[in-house]
UniProtKB/TrEMBL annotation:
Keywords: ATP-binding, Nucleotide-binding, Transport. The keyword Nucleotide-binding applies. SMART domains: AAA. It comes from Candidatus Enterococcus murrayae. This is ABC transporter ATP-binding protein. The lineage of its organism: Bacteria, Bacillati, Bacillota, Bacilli, Lactobacillales. It comes from the Bacteria. The keyword ATP-binding applies. InterPro entries: AAA+_ATPase, ABC_transporter-like_ATP-bd, ABC_transporter-like_CS, ABC_transporter_ATP-binding, P-loop_NTPase.
Length: 282
């Protein structure tokens, strides 16, 4: 679906942002592009979605070289949610979406009202101007804009930004539903929870270079201490014990009244990111 070879980009002299990126994204995959602010995440997304030109290297989408694809049909297969939503503030959610949908074939557009309902948009704000919306409500309209064309490829930049916990869960469920339909998702974020829960694979990018690409599960297993901490009670006192995983069969037979919990000592995704890149996410 996406293939990138030796991708470079500069915003000006001595301002090179990307330093020869190489990666592939398979059809129906959710691919996370993770890194701190200024690492090149959004620049890469803008190149892949056709916004930025004059890059170095090769970029292909749908098996076609981006350098030679500028026709409407090619880009009509793509949906984009930007980190900073582009909406007309004096128009309502419905007016914005009806306007943007006018650039696409009618048979490609989903029912906008049904889509907003799916995104749990407040009905009493449907006809109010975007300027009166909270950040979370604007994010719902922007996600509707990205999804309404039934895209084959979705570029999502910080999709859960500005959402409360229930809204974030809703968006993750919707992204997973889109993947089940066969949609490919390129997710740029520094939210490690989104990455771990959603992504088939992630790339850690720092200062315009990729440090590692792998599945979140594999990264956690590879960097694990391979031990568990057991919380238990003995003689009415709470205690804990840390054991190596490969010794559990022999080690579980220790004095205790009740086992309260067992926690694996896997590193967090943020800890893994710091380990590979030496940088924090923000």
């Amino acid at each position: 679906m996406i293939e990138v070879k030796e991708l470079t980009f500069s915003y000006g002299k001595n301002k090179q942002t990307l330093h020869g990126l190489d990666f592939k994204v398979g059809e129906g995959e959710i691919f996370g592009f993770l890194g701190p602010n200024g690492s090149g995440k959004s620049t890469t997304q803008k190149i892949l979605s056709g916004i930025l030109k004059n890059y170095g290297g090769e970029v292909s989408l749908f098996g076609q070289d981006m350098a030679y694809r500028t026709n409407k049909k090619f880009f009509q297969r793509i949906g984009v949610l930007f980190e900073f939503p582009y909406l007309y503030a004096n128009l309502s959610a419905l007016d914005n979406l009806n306007y943007f949908s006018s650039f696409y074939p009618k048979d490609q557009i989903q029912d906008i009202s049904a889509l907003l309902e799916r995104l749990e948009f407040k009905k009493d704000y449907l006809h109010k101007p975007v300027s009166s919306y909270s950040k979370g409500m604007r994010q719902r309209v922007s996600m509707a804009r990205a999804l309404m064309t039934s895209p084959d490829l979705l570029f999502l930049d910080e999709p859960t930004s500005g959402l409360d916990p229930s809204g974030a869960v809703l968006f993750r469920n919707i992204i997973e539903e889109e993947r089940k339909k066969g949609t490919t998702v390129f997710l740029t974020t520094h939210n490690m929870m989104d990455a771990e829960l959603l992504c088939d694979r992630v790339a850690f990018v720092v200062e315009g270079s990729i440090a590692v690409i792998d599945a979140p599960k594999h990264l956690k297993e590879h960097n694990s201490k391979h031990q568990v901490t057991i919380e238990y009670t003995l003689d009415k006192k709470r205690k804990s014990k840390t054991l190596k995983i490969n010794t559990l069969d022999q080690s579980l037979n220790f004095p205790h009244d009740q086992i309260l919990s067992i926690h694996s000592q896997e590193p967090t995704m943020e800890e893994i990111f710091i380990q590979y890149t030496g940088r924090r996410l923000s």
